[in-house]
Amino acid sequence: MNLLQNSTIILTGFLLSEMLVAARMHHRLIHFLLRHSGKNLGTLLTAILLISYTLSIFISHTIVLISMIPIINRMLSLVEHNDERRVAASLFYLALTFGSNTGGMASLTGSPQNMLAITLAEFFTFEGRNIITFFSWLGVGVPATLILLFCGWVIILVTAKPFCIPSLFSESSDKLAVLPHKPLLFLIGNLLLISTLSALQFLYTPAPIFFTLNTIDLGFLLYGTAFLFVALILPKTKISLRALFMNTIFLLLHLFLFPLIFISRLCRELESRMGVPMKNSYGAIDNLILQIVQRVWTRCFREPIANLDSPNANSMLSINLIMKDLPYFGIFLLSIVGMILFGLLKAWDNPATPELDSSLLTLTKSTILKTIPPVSNHFLQLLSLIIVIIFSSELLSNTALILIFTPLSSDLALLTSLSPIMMLLTITIAASSAFMTPVATAANTLAFGGIEHVSLKMILLPGLFMNLVAALWTALLFSLLTGLLS
């Protein structure tokens, strides 16, 4: 039940980050970083890079990115001038995406593409797939990605060197500049629990004991349910049936109204980013939401809700504030890219045109094979293939590229002297190594949509250098691994 386990990790990871935000840990962390960075922009960028990298090893990198965006935007609000804000936003974007994308490659649970690779290896029954476990991936992934992270760090510091943002460090108060130890221990404890359950997921496969669920599945389910209950339903102070019922209705109401909330928030972001006048639209939607909530709430509890933006003070987390912090514009961009990709795949896999689909598949295969230069050096052939995959990911979904290239793993393995399973892993890592454009990965799209004032011109060149470094290092890594395992 990988879907259940991965869904639990994503949900609890996101709620965990929101708990820390609700405890204002992100404000304390910001003040700590600003206070202890010595008013050095490079030190601050290094901290963001390392935090996003480390968290992405244990939690899906897209969830880490969504959780970090409020912290980034809070720091950007401290910057006074528009030019400085544009520079700061672009540099923070680079640190956040370089860290989260690289950390996502370091473990099986760090990226959905890694889990997809394991599923495809089982589907195509590649020989040697049994060597891929949580710990074997982690054992190779962490040292390998640390080298790539170092290269990204150098690129970011070189990019940031000409710039100075004094207003970012203008606050002189020492208040809240102490690192919050208890919330960090809470975070580390939950990360260790998630990591332990994730490790057990790959080390053991117990027999089902409840329908199709085994003991590990039930452990994930129990942990996720308990976390959800404590975070959103359990009363913060005095426990009573009325308080439990109020928190439950508050949660269900907002989940039911989320489509309307999404449209309203998206209209607000489109207005602020593109100058499109949409006040009447989101105003009408907000009034409709308020009327629905007031009617249900008054009927259930005989009291009105004064303000929909007010937090639910009776629970640890308030679902309306969580929804308020979501990067709606980033999710919107991601949805557009996904729909375009889905349309292309459906057009390709049309039952009415099987001959055309077969011709397209043959054409794709021959085109891919032609991109590899006809040289006797297998390393150069592998490097060329990786470069093609990385730069194709800048325009296409990395998930789609993995699905397209995986059936060709055996043919590509013959050209590059890699085994099919190693070729599949190479394809997966290469497809996740696109750092240049905002549509290259889901993390890039969410960051570009969630962080305002990012300069496209400023992020392209560092992303290009990171792509080339990633291509070279990926080719070296899998050539070395193939030599060691052969």
Describe the structure in your own words.
By secondary structure, this protein is mostly helical. The protein folds into 3 domains: 2-232, no CATH class; 241-315, no CATH class; 330-485, no CATH class. The protein has helices spanning 2-22, 25-36, 41-58, 61-76, 82-105, 112-123, 134-160, 181-203, 215-232, 241-256, 258-274, 279-301, 319-324, 328-348, 354-370, 378-393, 398-405, 409-416, 420-431, 442-450, 456-485. It is globular, with a radius of gyration of 24 Å. Mean pLDDT is 80; it is low at 172-176.
User: How large is the count of helical segments?
Assistant: 21
Main beta sheet, described? none
Q: Based on DSSP secondary structure assignment, what is the total number of beta strands? A: 0
What's the Cα radius of gyration?
Answer: 24 Å
Determine the structural class based on helices, strands and strand pairing: mainly alpha
Order of helices and strands: HHHHHHHHHHHHHHHHHHHHH
How many distinct folded domains? 3
**Distance N to C terminus:** 33 Å
Share of helix, binned: over 70%
Average pLDDT, to the nearest integer?
A: 80
Low-confidence stretches: 172-176
Percent strand equals: under 5%
Shape: globular
